[in-house]
Amino acid sequence: MAVTNPWRYALDADAVEVGHWQGDSAPALAAHFHAQAQCTLVLRGSRLFGIGDRAILVSAGECLLIPAGLPHRSLAHVDPGTACLNVYLEVEGPAQASALAGTPETVARLAERAGVSREAFTRSFARRTGLPPAAYRTVHRLNQGRMLLRHGASVADVAFALGFADQSHFGRLFKQRFGTTPGAYSRGLRASQTF
Predict the structure, then answer these.
(1) How distant is the alpha carbon of residue 90 from its chain centre?
(2) Given strand 8-11, what is the order of strands in its sheet?
(3) What is the pLDDT of residue 181?
């Protein structure tokens, strides 16, 4: 199995986060969402994304705009020499984040308050958001971690503050969703601020 190149992240001169990937085999990333809108521009080759039940092919010269809060995933895709750039944009407007993200209540308790079974609540939540409740909360915590890392917090402090089992657990989940380790992400952002 070929090792794929990791995503590299940086901040531009206006403190806008950008991500860059290039290689022959685009990595599959687990379903996730961002607090910002994601604009993916394919510079060479092509990328394949999954949004809901749809697979979307984005070819060289094309751009895919993924609204803030919309769950999506990068699908494994081979196209030699592919290069793409993601720009994460703060946008005004209603957030798509679910109230579940910020509440410590259990799914069982939320289902009870809604007057439905836990299973019915979970199915309904997944239909509306694209992720089951536990995965949604995990991705929300990972996005909080991105923000803390962006503001200079250490990986160990972020893992502890957000309640991950340990730094390794945080790192594994972060890489599954964002294509790089928290340490590499943090180093890339710091290095880009030294123009």
Answers:
(1) 15
(2) 8-11, 17-26, 77-89, 37-44, 63-66
(3) 95
CATH of the domain at 159: 1.10.10.60
pTM of the prediction?
0.84
Q: What angle do CA 26, 31, 33 make, to 5 degrees?
A: 105
- 175 in the same domain as 124: yes
Vertex 157: Cα angle to 148 and 193 (nearest 5): 45
CATH number, residue 18: 2.60.120.10
Residue 96 pLDDT > 70: no
State how many domains the chain has: 2
Q: Both 109 and 188 in a single domain? A: yes
Question: What share of the chain has pLDDT > 70, as a percent?
Answer: 90
CA–CA dist 155, 158 (Å, integer): 5
| Residues 66 and 122 reside in one and the same domain | no
Indicate if 119 and 53 belong to the same structural domain: no
With a cut of 70, say whether residue 2 has pLDDT above it: no
**pLDDT of 95 above 90:** no
Domain that holds residue 18: 8-89
Written as six digits, the tokens of 32 are 């996730």
Distance CA 20, CA 6 (A): 9
Spatial separation of the C-alpha atoms in residues 172 and 183, rounded to whole Å: 11
Phi-psi region of 111 (alpha: psi -120 to 50; beta: other; left: phi over 0): alpha
